[in-house]
Design goal:
about 375 residues, alpha/beta, six-stranded antiparallel barrel, five-stranded parallel β-sheet, 17 strands, globular
Length: about 375
């Protein structure tokens, strides 16, 4: 494999375009590839992304390919998305996509091209810690930091990845693009989930599964029926709008119970909790979780992070206890553990505990 040959995932946006430009300036043999990941909905938008990536590659003087990962994306990302929502959880498809498509599928493709490394336009850094493990570290610009969504990456993936933008501010990247006359220098960012461009998650799920959602009951924590809802896929923990409940005060979704098709409603204080368990545990900077670790945890992308104690349980899950109650801890979302701006590990939120729980209740073998 050629260590100076690098495959850059190019989305047609300014970040990945500048990543390719910077690597070429550093003497790398850059190959641009745009990943085709979904068919049908949003086809015109995807065609525009491909066209933009081709224009940028031509301007930079690098070869450009389109790689079809639709089958893998459908199975690994959309399949997981549909299953999670139908099971009453709120998934984070970007975390799944990063690990299984934007990294693993792209790395496999790169190897066929004789490249030993891939690169992306994410705002993060890759560091090797004193214990020898690779981890992602927060970028220079806090508001653009993307380490949360990269929490699922493996040691093998990190060891063969370059992230050129970690030491730049977004404004600097746009300025570099303008000075280099990159065609997408002023292109706006896209924030929605790529395969649901209209943000109608429920409509997407019903269309893909062919299943009409069954209504169920809104209930209080004590079990009192408050009315009927239109199907659990329409709700997420912490939600206030769209409940259509005349309660005389603001009320919120506290919990979703897929077994009974119930959506639990409560006051704002009922949405707070101190403890969660998570599965799909991925250790990044940490070698082991056998002993309790004091860290900072983020429970969603824009969560500022909060102090906690994390410890692996006998069933393979991890228990996270926050020092202070956190709002809207949501099953299905990722919980990401940090030390000094470095991702030490992560998991998928499995269960939220609102009451103090004894160690034996959550699988601890202490």
């Amino acid at each position: 494999m050629d260590n100076k040959k690098v495959v850059v995932g190019m989305s047609g946006g300014v970040d990945s375009s500048v990543a390719a430009y910077l690597l070429k300036k550093q003497g790398y043999d850059v190959i641009g590839v745009t990943m085709k990941t979904w068919r049908g909905e949003g086809t015109l938008e995807q065609k525009q992304l491909l066209e933009d990536a081709r224009k940028v590659s031509e301007a930079l003087g690098i070869v450009h390919y389109t790689a079809d990962f639709c089958e893998q994306f459908e199975k690994e990302v959309i399949g997981d998305f549909l299953e999670e929502y139908q099971n009453g959880r709120t998934p984070n498809p970007c975390v799944v996509c990063n690990r299984k498509i934007k990294w693993q599928a792209l790395m496999d493709w790169a190897k066929k091209m004789g490249a030993n490394q891939i690169a992306t336009g994410h705002y993060a850094k890759i560091v090797q810690l004193p214990n020898g493990r690779y981890a992602v570290k927060r970028a220079k610009t806090a508001k653009k930091d993307q380490t949360y969504a990269l929490c699922g990456l493996t040691q093998e993936q990190l060891a063969h990845t370059i992230m050129p933008l970690g030491d730049y501010e977004k404004e600097e990247i746009r300025q570099i693009a303008k000075e280099a006359e990159i065609p997408v220098a002023d292109k706006p960012e896209s924030m929605e989930i790529c395969f649901v461009p209209d943000d109608d998650y429920a409509g997407f799920i019903e269309g893909r599964t062919g299943k009409e959602q069954k209504p169920g009951n809104f209930v209080t924590l004590g079990g009192k029926v408050l009315g009927q809802h239109k199907g659990i896929i329409h709700y997420t923990v912490g939600q206030r709008k769209g409940l259509n409940l005349a309660m005389g005060k603001p009320v919120f979704v506290v919990e979703i119970r897929p077994q009974t098709q119930e959506v639990v409603i409560g006051d704002n204080e009922d949405v707070f909790a101190k403890t969660l368990t998570c599965d799909h545990v991925n250790l990044m900077g940490l070698e082991t979780l056998e002993e309790a670790h004091a860290m900072t945890a983020k429970i969603r992308y824009h969560h500022p992070g909060a102090p906690c104690i994390v410890e692996r349980q006998s069933d393979g899950t991890a228990l996270c206890r926050f020092a202070e109650p956190q709002r809207a801890i949501t099953p299905g979302q990722s919980v990401v553990f940090y030390e000094n701006d470095v991702v030490m590990g992560s998991g998928r939120i499995l269960k939220v505990w609102r009451e103090e729980i004894p160690d034996k209740a959550c699988g601890s073998d202490r």
